[in-house]
# Entry
Amino acid sequence: MTLRPDIPLFDLFGETGGFPDTVHCERIWDRARLHDWVISPHRHAEITQVFFMRQGHAEVRIDGQDATLDDGQFLLIPVQIVHGFEFQKLSEGLVLSFPAPVLAGMRPASPGLAARLSRPVVGTASDTLVTLSDQLVAAFARPGPYRANLLVALAQALLAEICALVPAEEAAAPGGAKMMALDALIAAHLAEGWRAGDYAAALSITPGHLTRLCHAATGLSASRYIEGKVMTEASRMLAFTQVPVAEVGYRLGFSDPAYFSRRFRALRGQSPSDYRGRFVG
# Structure
């Protein structure tokens, strides 16, 4: 795999312009064939995507983990998740892209809903999901004065159906809204070296309360949970970019490269250089 200077951040893959519509629908064929059926690792800052494989196969890399997408399956990719594909030639299906306001507008809001939409999921598409995707594609292609309203309604119905298909044990999210808010803060302040007390202050809770929330949700202290999130981002940068190891540490708030390497080894079981070596070939 060829490493890049940085992880590409797109609205739609390969495009640097603004998001083109209320939602976006396209065939896998339309974009994958333009890239010889290989979509290199990238991520989206404000877009959640759903891939639906009607016929064909794809090898998928999701934040460094391997998965497959086969006939009749769907894949949910939340914001900021690094993903790439190697499609079997002539694979056919859909790529549905939903900007953040579509998800934020889902009502009634709940921690369970947010949890189900915050992590990647591969599953078998229900008849309802297939029907909703077909209706969404049809509405996307049809002009009209209430087109945007219809697209948002169908998109939210489709996402709700995906939530219903996620097993409860995969979606459990103790701490709910506060944990989601913490994750958003961590993503926003990765480079600033914030400690647990800084995040607690931003959430208007005490450090002890934050630790109790993190422990209930993950079994980890707040400090260890935050460090784990930082090292996940470090893993992404090491796997998918050419950024030097020391610079990865600097970008994530570590002023001492040696300390960054020690902490990475403590959490990942190998040095940053050895970890990167797993993805170079």
Remarks:
- The two ends are 6 Å apart (CA to CA).
- The mean pLDDT is 86.
- The first strand starts at residue 24 and ends at 27.
